[in-house]
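Recall that a protein's primary structure is simply its ordered list of amino acids. Everything else, from secondary elements to tertiary packing, is in principle encoded there. The following example makes that idea concrete.
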Amino acid sequence: MHQRIAAFALMMPIAAACALAQSQGSKPSQPMGVQPPPDITRIQEEMHHAGAPSPGPLKITFGSKTSEFTADQLASLPHTTITVYNEHEKKTQTYSGVPLIDLLTPLGVSAKPHGKDFQFYVVAEGADDYQAVYSIGEITPDVHDGTVLVADTVDGKPLGNNGLFQLVATGEKRSARWVRNLVSVRVLKAQ
């Protein structure tokens, strides 16, 4: 019984993508579930990133410590500006926001990680349940040249359909780990 449920759950994204492709005018070459349409990756990415602007504050958790940020609270913090090519939008954009590490250090995350600190990683989640993972080393300027930013504006304007907050990173070839409609950031420890 559990195997049937698991198999059904695995087929659901393909079935949904096929239904979306059919509603957009394209037809799969085989019966549904046999062969996904050629643009399955693009369709699944669009489905994952769809969603309304985040309804509430951004919740950040490390162990038993939690902090929340509304749009006004984040706007009041010192901001950093980055200019990156947004592969999804096919253009260069300028984002402004707060480096993620600056929001984590008040909860006890080390700004200069050493040894066992590298067991920690970050799970960023959007309102649509889309998730991306970053290691502590990737978000710390002491270790990595890139910047992972909790952005609240793009090109000097609110994010619009991307929610109140968006996780954006420099140094990435694609924007696949950028999380729109960011509502949650959890710092977890690898087992």
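The chain has two domains: 2-49, 58-189. Confidence is low (pLDDT under 50) at residues 1-54.
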